[in-house]
Amino acid sequence: MAALQDTKPENLPESIRHYIGGEWVDSIDGDTFDVLNPVTNEPYIKAASGKKADIEAAVAAAKKAFEEGPWPKMLPRERSRILHKIADIVESRGDQLAAMESYDSGLPITQALGQARRAAENFRFFADLVVAQIDDAYKVPGRQVNYVNRKPIGVAGLITPWNTPFMLESWKLGPALATGNCVVLKPAEFTPLSASLWPGIFEEAGVPAGVFNLVNGFGEEGYAGDSLVKHPDVPLISFTGESRTGQIIFGNAAPYLKGLSMELGGKSPAVVFEDADLEAAINATVFGVFSLNGERCTAGSRILVQRGIYDEFVERYAAQAKRVKVGLPSDPSTEVGALVHPEHYEKVMSYVEIGKQEARLVAGGGRPEGFETGNYVAPTVFVDVKPDARIFQEEIFGPVVAITPFDTDEEALELANNTKYGLAAYIWTSDLKRAHNFAQNVEAGMVWLNSNNVRDLRTPFGGVKASGLGHEGGYRSIDFYTDQQAVHINLGEVHNPVFGKQEDAAAKTDG
Ligand code: NAD
User: Fold this and answer.
1) Domain residues of the chain, as ranges?
2) In Gene Ontology terms, what is a biological process of this protein (predicted)?
3) For ligand 1, atom 42: residue with the closest CA
């Protein structure tokens, strides 16, 4: 059988370079790495591989733009206008963006298009939020007025993963830029293509040179990601990626006491009670784990099903999983495309083999028919999965789901909480009291009741336990990217302390 080929997008650049201080540049040592297309696994473009020296140049450019340029000093309204322009441009280039994202990452084109729209919306949202923001002020009757000055912090280091790369970059770029910071973005090495579109978009929208800087390359010690985390002039790191990487970054940032936001891995439960709308629950849980090729942090990859409906659920779920359309990423009818990279494909396939030893396979379990090359994994369903199984405990990050039965609400909760992760939870029941009770006690940063993971951009996003540190989304992002300086104004009746009247003065001051 001939090897599969996907349609190459138009206007591919010749190579992917860094963008520093408003200029496209190669790595200082000239090093590059190959970027693979997930359908052929052949290199289709070279990207510059950044190291410490490249990060130093990018941070210096960002610092200069922050200290000397107009960006942090602009009125929120002025930055907001530019952010809206960015959103307009992203929207107008949705097709091109989606084609590039899909070719680079293996995501189905329709889903990549949806993510491009979401990226535009992220910019629009933060453009609106910074102008609508209510400033804090406190009146202490007769004594003081206190107000809070929100100030951009400086150079923010943004480190992003390869799943939905463009959208996840927008998630950090939107609030970091809206609040007046300058940034250095280090996108994931598996998928650098769509990030190379940001400079053109930002230039066209009027973002001054040096405000946005891009350094491509790897994350490990001595490479771009690690060097960004260890740079003393970068007080903030916003990271999305694996929990293990988050731990390493946490350690490396500690000597500098950096502000950290960590959006990490997940193994989220979808709990289906006997009184649920079964049709809706099956549709949503099939979509929840197989969309975005299963490479979704909030995937409901453990489904817990109450015993009375277990057999019916399993039968219908497996049938539906078998109907999910696997195809070329560029084909608009494709529902599951190719996994991002052969390394990740091997990892997911190794879990499929582990699952065959640990549980009962009812759908998938290998390559889909007709896809003998490329990183293709058929939507795979394991049932009767025990809680100590590795496929129950560990994040697979592919189109693989573990289904486990339970009897009581207490057992469901115990199973739901029985992993190190705590990102999302999905609850399917028609009993509101049960749903709320479960939501209160489940260890998850985000809970959806009778819903897939639609999220209003105002709500907090983040996980507990090994799934993250801090929250982003809405005002939480504004908080993360700003210093909040309190200014206390004496209205005339605050008596300055004099020794001899220490008790009164001490009662009103902090340590
Ligand atoms: P990863 O941790 O391997 O890499 C993420 C980024 O970190 C990449 O840019 C990488 O180059 C960089 N990096 C690696 N080592 C580094 C180091 N020592 N210092 C600095 N940077 C370093 O993650 P991945 O495989 O790209 O992405 C998949 C993971 O991301 C999954 O675990 C998924 O759940 C998680 N994720 C979480 C969310 C969320 O919001 N919670 C969203 C998307 C993805």
Assistant:
1) 18-264+464-487, 269-449
2) 4-hydroxyphenylacetate catabolic process
3) 297
Ligand 1 pocket: which of 163, 184, 218, 243 to mutate (most atoms within 8 A of CB): 163
* Residue 239 alpha carbon to ligand 1 centre in Å: 7
State the fold for domain 18-264+464-487.
Aldehyde Dehydrogenase; Chain A, domain 1 (3.40.605)
Ligand 1 atom closest to Cα of residue 246: 2
Burial label, 254 (beta-carbon count in 10 A; 0-12, 13-18, 19+): exposed
Asked whether residue 103 carries a pLDDT value surpassing 90, the answer given is yes
The 10s digit of each residue's pLDDT in 162-187 is 999 999 999 999 999 999 999 999 99
In this predicted model, what pLDDT tens digit does every residue of 332-342 receive, in sequence order? 999 999 999 99
CA distance 176 to 18: 20
Per the prediction, the chain carries an average pLDDT of 96
Catalytic residue annotation: 263
Residue 281 pLDDT > 90, yes or no?
yes
| Lowest model confidence (mean pLDDT) among 13-22, 117-126, 488-497 | 488-497
Chain center to CA of 176:
15
The rounded Å distance from CA 246 to ligand 1 centre is: 8
How confident is the model at residue 493, as a pLDDT?
Answer: 66
Amino acid of residue 177: L
Tell me what the mean pLDDT of segment 286-302 comes to.
98
468 within ligand 1 shell (Cβ under 6 A) = yes
Q: CB under 8 Å to 336, separation ≥6 — which residues? A: 108, 290, 293, 294, 324, 325, 326, 327, 379, 399
Structure confidence at residue 395 (pLDDT) = 98
Q: 110-123: b or e for each residue (b if 16 or more CB lie within 10 Å)? A: bbbbbbbbbbbbbb
> Which residues are 270's β-sheet partners?
303, 426
Q: Which residue intervals of 291-408 are DSSP H helices?
A: 307-323, 342-358, 390-393
| CA-395 nearest atom, ligand 1 | 32
**Helix-helix angle 94-105:76-92, to 10 degrees:** 70
Sheet holding 144-152, edge to edge: 137-140, 144-152, 482-490
Calculate how far, in angstroms, residue 296's C-alpha sits from the geometric centre of ligand 1.
12
Residue nearest to atom 12 of ligand 1 (CA): 219
Decide: pTM greater than 0.90: yes
3-state secondary structure of 327: coil
Instruction: Give all strands of the β-sheet with 259-263 in edge-to-edge order.
Output: 23-25, 18-20, 212-214, 182-186, 155-159, 236-240, 259-263, 468-469
SS3 488: strand
**Ligand 1 centroid to 242 CA: how many Å?**
4
Q: Which CATH architecture has domain 269-449?
A: 3-Layer(aba) Sandwich (3.40)
Task: Report angle CA 64, 65, 70 to the nearest 5 degrees.
Answer: 135
